[in-house]
Amino acid sequence: MMSLPLASTRRQLEPGTFEIIAGTAIILAWVILALAAPLFSGADPNSIDLSGLLQPPSADHFFGTDHLGRDVFTRVLHAARIDVWMGIAGVMPPLLVGATIGLVSGYAGGATDAVMMRLVDITVAFPFFVLVIAIVGILGPGLFNYFVALALVGWVSYARLVRAEVLVLKNKEFVAAAQALGYPPSIIMARHVLPNTLSSLLVYATTDAVLVLLAGASLGFLGLGVQPPTPEWGAMIADGQPYVVDAWWICFFPGLAAMSLGFGFILTSDGLSRVLGR
Amino acid sequence: MPFLFALGQRLLQLIPVLIGISVVSFLLVQLSPGDPIRLLLGDRATAEAVAQLREQYGFDRPLIVQYFSYVSNVLQGDLGRSIRYQLPVESLILDFLPPTLFLIGYVVAISVPTTVVLAIVSARCRDRWPDHLIRAAAILGMTIPVFWLALMMSRLFGVELGWFPVSGYGDGFVGHLHHLFLPAISTSTWLIPLLLRNLRAALINESESDYVTASRSKGLGEGYIFRRHVLVNSVLPTLNLLGVMIAFLIGSSVVVEIIYAVPGLGTLMVSAVLGRDYYVIQGLTLFYAIATVIVTLTIDILSAMIDPRVKL
User: Fold this and answer.
1) Where is the signal peptide (chain A) (predicted)?
2) What is the chain B residue with the closest CA to A217?
3) Which of B29, B148, B290 minimises the CB distance to A237?
4) pTM to 2 decimals?
């Protein structure tokens, strides 16, 4: 009878695993807080209480109240519904657009590639945030238009990343084998090339989530994001700005929330890149 | 002369990019849902007045004709007229440019030396406590919302302690330095971690390379190897990243300028976006893009001059 190898239980964690677990835990915690926001605090995030304006943090109001007497704690939790969604869903439009362009561009090569790469050159010439502000400013404020702007501006990094990988992958034996078996390029790209780029995409997307979250909160701060009274961290900081001298808590806690979520994304990304060796 | 030849080729490659930039900035206004004429005249303007102005501005002509007249105007330095300020956009941009330039220079002057020192400490103490501390601080710095940090610092150092002014641009060089200190620090807090992580990785990568082992086996001192070989070879990737980051800084100074009421391009941009001042948005976007192209080109030329292996 063979003895099972017990050494594996004592083996040290692979470097990066701890970061992934801690980072994912932070993100998951925020997802749960966002989903369960109404349970944690029964109050309506927009309920105005003019008798309790600008109250400092206390047992009744953990994070104090704002200039309309709204509970900052409740609003931070409800805002997570927008911001967590923004960070996670916001990377999808540029990822989908960029990965498709990079895949086709790298695999097809030739004129298609040349045209796509000129498009990349043109897009990177515009500072990211400037173009996002310009597009949102012209389309009008709101989350949807922010996602549109992200898709139009943010695809470049994903396209470059995927294209660079595809250029290496398309000369591998398994691609040659698929070609020899007569599979059409679309199948080869989707079934054989794309899956091999997913780990790099994942690492980059988790880093990008921080950028998307912080840029989105900046837009909210500038009044170009989700419109009031819907709570959103950036917009809440803007709300609190006139009162920051006397009532620091209105601005402080939403920023802390954004920071902790961003921290979760970066930790995950760092861990993933160590584990996947990228 | 091969360098000049390569430079010429690089400049030729810029032509399609510049055309693309002009098309994008032209389309920004064309595709906008609002009618710029209506904005100019207000809602109560008569149909005849609208039609007349439309003709005057050339909006009744085909899109391609309008594009060419836009390009010829831009080439003559005419970026249109601000609806809100009733001034030519190009003179507005020149008025608002100095504080932004000063701020970017300030940020680079703070960030680059700090990054180099911290990265060296981090790489040389790899996986010991100074490294862990610096890396943790770097992660924290990357996740702080810059505008929030700016706001909190303006309250603490500006209002509470009264060390620094919290708004404006000040007078004279020292005045600028004093007024823009908090904005520059807030922006650096975000920039330093990005550069630091990059330089640290480059330093560690270089210090594991074969020529370092060879130098060690010759009996050269660690400090000598680090200064003469590792550090020099790690500069290039970080220089490239700095180029990208300056381009990024031009954009991200927008929010910081708003918080500290610095009369810079960011303030102009946001007020234009909020006021739907289309020609200012268009002109600024074009200006930002051309500035980015120039920065990128400069960095590429510098890289090629530093390292002959780099092709322009």
Assistant:
1) none
2) B145
3) B148
4) 0.86
Q: Which domain holds residue A44?
A: 3-275
CA distance B258 to chain A (A): 9
We report the CATH number of the domain holding residue A114 as: 1.10.3720.10
Number of domains in chain A: 1
Domain extents for chain B?
Answer: 22-75, 100-306
Largest CA distance in chain A: 77
Using a CB-CB cut-off of 8 Å, the residues of chain B touching A255 are 144-145, 148-149, 151-152
pLDDT in tens, A222-256: 888 888 888 999 999 998 888 888 888 889 999 99
Using omega within 30 degrees of 0 as the cis cutoff, is the peptide bond preceding A5 cis?
A: no
Closest in A244, A248, A255 to B145, CB measured: A255
State the maximum Cα–Cα separation within chain B, in Å, rounded to a whole number: 88
Q: How far is A245 from chain B (nearest CA, A)?
A: 6
- pLDDT at position B54 is 75
Q: Please give the Cα distance from A162 to A176 (Å, whole number).
A: 19
- Whether residue A7 is predicted with pLDDT greater than 60 in this model: the reply is no
Q: Which of B142, B145, B250 sits opposite A258 (nearest CB)?
A: B145
Q: How confident is the model at residue B70 (pLDDT cuts 50, 70, 90)?
A: confident
Class of domain B100-306: mainly alpha
Paired residues of B88 in beta bridges:
B81
